[in-house]
Design brief:
This protein has about 210 residues and is α+β, with helices and mostly antiparallel strands. It has helices spanning about 5-10, 25-35, 40-50, 55-70, 70-85; strands at about 90-95, 110, 115-120, 130-140, 145, 150-155, 170-175, 180-190. Residues about 195-210 have low confidence and may be disordered.
Length: about 210
């Protein structure tokens, strides 16, 4: 499909009653499509996708359209949402330790390319932390400075190991010793469709939605 066909197909998966904060609906998307304002229509569809949990097909078509439009940030975000639709959502309030207290001296990339280790409560037979891997997406900002705080989304490499998490649970981010930060779980939501207990981490993308 070309871009207009992909956006039209995505728009058909958006219920007409959904509206953005500015009261724009899928009807407005169709108007932009008739005017060949594809990037504007894409942005509005992206906003509508944040207002309601939409099916996997919506995000797949959006990802394809973003790639054809060479919108790397949005393509990365849509692929991330595809992964969350398949395997569930984990959001947490993340606080990084200051640069003086950890090995990290540079901002942490927030667009899903980093795959750090996490202490989520599992222990080895010897009683040591049995760390788990999860890709990291920082909401709102593309980077998080040492000592910074932001809401983050996690994509576990092995989702079954994370099923015990509940809102309020504290977990620890590791990039070596000492730990790089701490997080408090805000939201845990299961997959919207048929999931998989051993899901791959989302593919690496050049950039992401900030």
């Amino acid at each position: 499909m070309d871009v207009p066909e992909l956006l039209e197909a995505a728009s058909l998966l958006v219920p007409e009653e959904i509206a953005t904060e500015n009261d724009l609906t899928v009807g407005d998307v169709w108007e932009y499509l008739t005017e060949d304002a594809w990037e504007v229509a894409f942005g509005l569809l992206e906003d509508l996708g944040g207002a309601r949990h939409l099916p996997l097909g919506f995000w797949e078509r959006m990802a394809d359209a973003a790639e054809q439009l060479r919108m790397k940030r949005s393509a990365a975000w849509c692929h991330w949402r595809c992964h969350e639709t398949r395997y569930g959502v984990i959001r947490a309030d993340l606080t990084l330790r200051p640069a003086s207290e950890t090995r990290r001296r540079t901002p942490l990339p927030g667009a899903g390319t980093l795959r750090p280790m996490w202490d989520i409560g599992h222990r080895t037979p010897a009683g040591e932390p049995d760390l788990a891997i999860a890709a990291l997406w920082v909401e709102v900002t593309p980077f998080l400075e040492p000592g910074g705080r932001a809401t983050a989304r996690l994509a576990p490499f092995t989702p079954a190991r994370w099923q015990h998490l509940r809102p309020g649970r504290a977990i620890t981010l590791h990039e070596g010793r000492p730990p790089a930060g701490t997080a408090v779980v805000l939201e845990v939501r299961g997959p919207a469709g048929p999931g998989a207990l051993h899901a791959p981490v989302p593919p690496r993308h050049a950039d992401g939605r900030g």
